[in-house]
C-alpha cells in the first residue's frame, strides 16, 4: 500500500515537474508570436539581441526616403514604432524580470519539493522498517496465540472433568441433605413436646410464687410490729439510764450536803475554840519575841567570843615573837658590846658610848676616803703598769731586733776576717811576685849591660834569647794581669762588706746612739699620741657643732609644735593617769563592795535570814497546799466532766485534746481535737474517726456542732454496748 | 623675686628673704621626709624646678611664718648664727635629730646697705642642690619610729631684744651623735651651711 502510494506521489511529482516545463513553453509561445525579436531573445537567452534589431531598423530608414509626406508619416510611424519598440523592449525587460523571478521561484519550489521528496523517501523507508518489525511482531503474536489456544484447550478439558466431578459431588451432597433434613424434623417435634411440658410446669411455679408473696407480706407486717416494740424498749432503756444518772447526781448532792453539815459542825467547834486559840497565839507571840531577843543576844555574844578568840591567838603569836625578840635583843646587846669594844679599839677612846658612833663614822669615812685615794692610786698605778709593760714589750722587741742586728754584724765580721786573711795571703803572693819581677828586671839590666859590652857578634844569639825572654815576660805579664783583674773583682765584691768591716769598731757606739734615738722617738711618740688624743677630743667637740659652746643666746618661740605636742602628751598622760586612778579606785571599791556585801550578808544572817526562810517556807507550804488543792479539785472536775459528758479529756502537747468515751469499745478508740490559732477546734483523723464518717458528715460538716457530734457518738456507742444485753432480753421475752 | 631690687643686685633684706624661703622649703621638706606629720597634710609645690611637699597644717604654717618673720629681722641685723630644727621624741623628750642651718655673714659685715651681684639663678641652683640632698637624706637617716615633734631654735648674739612670745632655751645636744654635712649655698651676703646630726643607732 505505502509503496504504491509513494509511487503515485512520485508520479504526480514527476508529472508536475514535466507539465510545468510545457506550461512555461506555452507561456513563451505567444510572446514568440508577437515579435520575432522577442522569441529570439527568449529562445536564445538575453545576449545581444538589441544590436541586431538596431541594425534592421537602420536598414529600414535607408529604404524609405522618397516622399516627405511619406517620410513624415514614416517618420511618425517610425517614432511610433520606435516608441512601440521601446515599450515592447520595456515589456520584454519586465517579462524577463518576471520570468527570472518565476524561474527563481520555480527553482526554490523545486528545491523545496526535492527536499520534501527526500524527506518523504526517508520517511517511507522508516515506515517500511516499522512495517517489517510490526509484521515480525504479528507473526510472533500469532505463534503465541496458537500456543495459548492449545493451553486453553487442555484447560477446558481439565475443567470439564472437574465440573463433572463436582456435579457428582453435588448430587451426593443433595442426597445427604435430604437424609439429614428428615432426622432434624424428627428432633424438632421432640423438642416441641418438651417445651409444652415446661410451660405447664412454669404455670404451676407461678402459682406457688403468688402464694409465697402473700406469705412474705404477712411476715413483713409482723416484723414492723416487732421493730416498734424494740424501739419502745430502747426509749424506755434510755429513760431508765437517765433516771439512774439523776439518781446518782442526787446521791452525790446528798453526800455533799452531809459533808457540808459536818463541816459546819466542825467549823462551829473551831469558832468556839477560836478565843482560846487567840489567847494562846498572843502568848506564843510574846514567847517568840523573847526567844528572838535571846537568839540575837546569843549571836552577839558568839561574835564577841569569836573576836576574843582571834585576839587571843594573835596575842599568843605576839608573845612568841616577844620571847624571840627578847632573845634576839640579848644577843644583839652582846653583839653591841662587842662592836663597842671594837669601835673603842678602833677609835682609841674610852669616852662615853654616845660619842662613839660619831667617832666611828668619822673614822669609817676617813677610811673610805683613804680607800678611794688608794683605789685611785691603784688605778693610776695600774695604768702606769700597763703603760710600762707595753713599753717593756716594745723595748724587748727592739732589743731583739738589735740582737739580730748584732748577730748579723758578727756574721759579716767573720766573713770579712776571712777575706782579710785571704787578702793578706794574696798580698804576700803579690809581693813575692814583685820581688821576682824585680829580680828579673835586675837581670834584664844586667843583660842589657852585657849586650852593650859583648857587641854585635853575638847579636843573633842574643836576639834569640831576648825574644824568648820577652815571650816569657809577656806570658808572666798576662798571668799577672789576670790575677790583678781577679783580685779587682774580688775587691769589688767585698767592697760593701769591707765598708761595714770598717764600722765594726764603732758598732757598739752606734748601737748606743741608736738606742738613745729609739728612746727619744718613743718619747716623741707618746707625746704625739697624747697630743692626738687631745686633738681628737677637741675634734669631737668641734665636729658636732651643736655641742659647741655658744657664746650667744639660744632662743625659740615659746609656742612651738614641740612644746604643744609635749603639753598635749602631758595632758593626755595626766588624763590617762586620772582615769587609771579612777578605775583603780573603782576596782578597789568594787572589791571592797564585794567584801562589804559579804560582810553584810554575815551580819544580817541571824536577823533577817531566819525570818526570810520562814517566809519562804510558809509560802512554799502555801504553794504546796494550793498545788494539792488544785490537783484534787482538778481531779474532781475531771471526774465530774467524765461522769456528766461521758468523755475523759486529756491534753496532749501542742494543744491537742484526746477524748475517750465512757462507752468506748476499746481503749484505743479516741477522738482527737486540735485547738487551732483562731481558737476553733479541728477534728484530727485517726483510726477511730474514720469509722464515724457519716456522723462527721452529718454533725460536723452539716450541723457544725461538736457537742451534737460527741453526744451522737455517745449515743451510738451506748447503743452498741447495750444492744447485746437488749437482744438477750428480747430473746428472753 | 623680691630680692631683685634692681638688675641682679641683692640687698641684705633680699638675701635674708632668700634664706628664709630656703628654710621654709627645707624645713617643710624635712617635716615630710622624716614623717613628723602624716603625708596627707602635705601638698606638692613646684619650686626651683623641684616638687616640694609643703605642709597644709595651719598650725605649722603659722608657726613657721612667725618664726621666719622674726628670723628675717635678725638676719638683716646679722644677729643670728645658726638656725636649728630639733626633732624630739615627745614621750621620752630625747632629741633624735638636729638640722643645723649655720649662717655666715660674708662681705662687708658692717655695711647695712651691702648688695650682692651674684646671679639669682645661680643661688637658686645652689639651693636646689641642697634641697635635693635633704630629700635624699631619708636614705641614711635612722627611722623615727616614735611620736616625734619639732622645734626651731635660733642661735643668736647676746644683744638682742627678745619679743614676749620668744623664750630662751637650752641647746639640744644629741648623745652618741653622727653628722652629715650637706652642700652649702651663698648669696654673697649670707652663707648657709646645712648639717644634719642624728643619734647613732649603735
From TrEMBL, chain A:
The keyword Endoplasmic reticulum appears for this protein: no
Keyword annotations: Cell cycle, Cell division, Coiled coil, Mitosis, Nucleus
This protein's record includes keyword Membrane: no
A GO term from the CC aspect: mitotic spindle
Family matches, as Gene3D superfamilies: 1.20.5.170, 3.30.457.60, 6.10.250.90
Subcellular location: Nucleus
Domain of life: Eukaryota
One BP term from GO: cell division
Coiled coil: 124-208, 267-318, 470-538, 562-629
Signal peptide (from-to): none
InterPro entries, per the entry: LisH, Mad1
Similarity comment text for this entry: Belongs to the MAD1 family.
Name this protein carries in UniProt: Mitotic spindle assembly checkpoint protein MAD1
Organism: Pyrocoelia pectoralis
Origin organism lineage: Eukaryota, Metazoa, Ecdysozoa, Arthropoda, Hexapoda
UniProtKB/TrEMBL annotation, chain B:
Compartments, record wording: Nucleus
SUPFAM superfamilies: The spindle assembly checkpoint protein mad2 (SSF56019)
A biological process from GO: mitotic spindle assembly checkpoint signaling
Major location category of this protein: nucleus
One Gene Ontology term, aspect cellular component: kinetochore
Signal peptide interval: none
InterPro entries: HORMA_dom, HORMA_dom_sf, Mad2-like
HORMA domain: residues covered: 13-196
Protein name as it appears in the record: HORMA domain-containing protein
Organism (species): Pyrocoelia pectoralis
Taxon lineage: Eukaryota, Metazoa, Ecdysozoa, Arthropoda, Hexapoda
Amino acid at each position: 500500500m505505502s509503496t504504491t502510494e509513494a509511487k503515485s506521489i512520485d508520479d504526480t511529482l514527476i508529472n508536475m515537474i514535466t507539465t510545468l516545463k510545457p506550461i512555461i513553453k506555452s507561456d513563451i509561445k505567444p510572446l514568440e508570436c508577437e515579435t520575432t525579436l522577442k522569441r529570439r531573445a527568449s529562445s536564445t537567452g538575453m545576449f545581444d539581441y538589441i544590436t541586431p534589431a538596431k541594425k534592421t531598423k537602420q536598414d529600414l530608414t535607408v529604404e524609405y526616403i522618397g516622399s516627405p509626406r511619406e517620410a513624415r508619416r514614416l517618420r511618425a510611424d517610425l517614432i511610433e514604432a520606435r516608441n512601440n519598440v521601446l515599450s515592447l523592449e520595456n515589456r520584454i525587460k519586465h517579462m524577463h524580470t518576471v520570468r527570472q523571478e518565476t524561474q527563481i521561484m520555480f527553482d526554490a519550489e523545486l528545491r523545496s519539493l526535492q527536499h520534501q521528496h527526500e524527506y518523504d523517501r526517508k520517511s517511507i523507508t522508516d515506515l517500511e522498517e516499522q512495517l517489517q518489525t510490526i509484521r515480525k511482531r504479528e507473526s510472533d503474536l500469532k505463534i503465541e496465540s496458537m500456543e495459548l489456544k492449545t493451553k486453553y484447550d487442555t484447560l477446558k478439558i481439565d475443567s470439564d472433568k472437574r465440573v463433572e466431578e463436582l456435579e457428582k459431588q453435588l448430587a451426593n451432597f443433595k442426597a445427604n441433605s435430604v437424609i439429614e433434613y428428615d432426622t432434624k424434623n424428627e428432633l424438632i417435634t421432640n423438642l416441641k413436646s418438651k417445651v409444652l411440658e415446661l410451660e405447664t410446669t412454669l404455670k404451676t411455679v407461678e402459682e406457688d410464687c403468688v402464694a409465697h408473696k402473700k406469705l412474705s407480706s404477712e411476715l413483713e407486717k409482723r416484723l414492723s410490729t416487732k421493730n416498734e416494740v424494740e424501739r419502745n424498749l430502747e426509749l424506755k432503756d434510755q429513760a431508765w439510764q437517765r433516771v439512774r444518772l439523776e439518781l446518782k447526781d442526787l446521791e452525790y448532792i446528798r453526800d455533799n450536803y452531809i459533808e457540808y453539815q459536818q463541816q459546819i459542825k466542825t467549823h462551829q467547834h473551831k469558832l468556839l475554840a477560836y478565843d482560846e486559840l487567840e489567847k494562846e497565839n498572843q502568848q506564843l507571840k510574846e514567847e517568840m519575841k523573847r526567844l528572838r531577843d535571846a537568839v540575837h543576844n546569843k549571836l552577839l555574844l558568839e561574835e564577841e567570843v569569836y573576836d576574843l578568840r582571834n585576839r587571843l591567838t594573835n596575842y599568843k603569836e605576839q608573845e612568841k615573837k616577844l620571847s624571840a625578840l627578847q632573845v634576839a635583843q640579848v644577843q644583839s646587846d652582846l653583839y653591841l658590846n662587842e662592836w663597842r669594844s671594837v669601835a673603842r679599839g678602833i677609835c682609841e677612846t674610852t669616852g662615853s658610848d654616845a660619842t662613839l658612833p660619831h667617832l666611828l663614822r668619822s673614822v669609817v669615812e676617813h677610811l673610805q676616803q683613804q680607800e678611794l685615794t688608794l683605789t685611785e692610786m691603784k688605778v693610776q698605778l695600774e695604768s702606769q703598769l700597763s703603760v710600762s709593760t707595753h713599753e717593756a714589750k716594745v723595748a724587748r722587741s727592739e732589743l731583739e731586733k738589735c740582737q739580730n742586728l748584732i748577730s748579723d754584724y758578727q756574721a759579716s765580721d767573720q766573713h770579712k776576717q776571712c777575706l782579710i786573711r785571704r787578702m793578706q795571703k794574696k798580698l804576700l803572693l803579690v809581693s813575692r811576685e814583685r820581688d821576682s819581677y824585680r829580680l828579673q828586671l835586675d837581670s834584664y839590666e844586667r843583660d842589657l849591660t852585657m849586650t852593650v859590652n859583648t857587641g854585635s857578634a853575638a847579636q843573633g844569639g842574643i836576639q834569640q834569647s831576648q825574644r824568648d825572654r820577652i815571650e816569657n815576660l809577656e806570658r808572666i805579664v798576662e798571668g799577672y794581669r789576670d790575677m790583678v783583674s781577679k783580685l779587682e773583682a774580688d775587691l769589688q765584691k767585698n767592697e760593701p762588706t769591707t765598708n761595714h768591716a770598717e764600722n765594726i769598731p764603732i758598732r757598739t757606739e752606734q748601737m748606743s746612739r741608736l738606742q738613745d734615738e729609739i728612746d727619744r722617738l718613743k718619747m716623741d711618740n707618746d707625746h704625739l699620741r697624747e697630743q692626738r688624743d687631745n686633738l681628737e677630743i677637741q675634734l669631737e667637740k668641734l665636729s658636732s657643732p651643736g655641742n659647741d659652746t655658744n657664746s650667744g643666746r639660744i632662743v625659740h618661740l615659746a609656742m612651738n609644735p614641740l612644746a604643744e605636742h609635749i603639753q598635749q602628751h602631758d595632758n593626755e598622760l595626766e588624763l590617762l593617769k586620772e582615769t587609771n586612778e579612777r578605775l583603780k579606785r573603782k576596782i578597789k571599791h568594787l572589791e571592797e563592795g564585794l567584801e562589804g556585801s559579804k560582810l553584810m550578808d554575815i551580819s544580817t544572817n541571824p536577823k533577817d535570814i531566819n525570818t526570810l526562810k520562814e517566809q519562804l517556807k510558809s509560802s512554799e507550804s502555801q504553794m504546796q497546799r494550793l498545788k494539792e488543792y488544785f490537783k484534787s479539785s482538778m481531779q474532781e472536775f475531771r471526774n465530774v466532766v467524765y461522769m456528766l459528758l461521758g468523755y475523759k479529756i486529756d491534753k496532749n502537747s501542742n494543744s491537742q485534746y484526746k477524748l475517750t468515751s465512757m462507752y468506748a469499745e476499746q481503749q484505743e478508740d479516741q477522738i482527737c481535737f486540735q485547738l487551732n490559732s483562731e481558737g476553733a477546734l479541728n477534728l484530727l483523723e485517726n483510726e477511730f474517726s474514720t469509722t464515724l464518717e457519716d456522723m462527721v458528715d452529718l454533725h460536723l460538716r452539716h450541723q457544725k456542732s461538736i457537742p451534737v457530734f460527741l453526744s451522737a457518738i455517745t449515743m451510738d456507742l451506748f447503743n452498741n454496748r447495750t444492744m447485746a444485753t437488749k437482744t438477750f432480753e428480747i430473746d428472753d421475752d | 623675686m623680691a630680692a631683685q631690687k634692681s638688675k641682679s643686685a641683692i640687698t641684705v633684706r633680699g638675701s635674708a628673704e632668700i634664706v628664709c624661703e630656703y628654710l621654709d622649703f627645707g624645713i617643710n621638706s624635712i617635716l615630710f621626709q622624716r614623717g613628723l606629720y602624716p603625708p596627707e597634710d602635705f601638698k606638692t609645690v613646684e619650686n626651683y624646678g623641684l616638687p616640694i611637699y609643703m605642709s597644709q597644717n595651719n598650725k605649722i604654717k603659722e608657726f613657721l611664718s612667725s618664726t621666719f618673720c622674726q628670723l628675717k629681722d635678725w638676719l638683716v641685723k646679722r644677729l643670728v648664727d645658726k638656725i636649728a630644727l630639733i626633732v624630739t621624741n615627745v614621750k621620752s623628750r630625747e632629741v633624735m635629730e638636729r638640722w643645723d642651718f649655720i649662717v655666715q655673714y660674708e662681705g662687708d659685715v658692717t655695711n647695712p646697705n651691702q648688695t650682692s651681684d651674684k646671679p639669682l639663678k645661680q643661688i637658686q641652683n645652689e639651693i636646689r642642690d641642697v634641697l635635693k640632698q635633704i630629700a635624699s637624706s631619708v636614705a641614711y637617716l635612722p627611722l623615727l619610729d616614735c611620736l616625734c615633734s619639732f622645734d626651731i631654735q635660733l642661735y643668736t648674739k647676746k644683744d638682742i631684744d627678745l619679743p614676749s612670745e620668744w623664750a630662751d632655751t637650752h641647746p639640744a645636744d644629741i648623745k652618741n651623735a653622727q653628722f652629715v654635712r650637706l652642700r652649702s649655698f651663698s648669696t654673697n651676703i649670707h652663707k648657709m651651711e646645712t648639717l644634719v646630726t642624728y643619734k647613732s643607732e649603735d
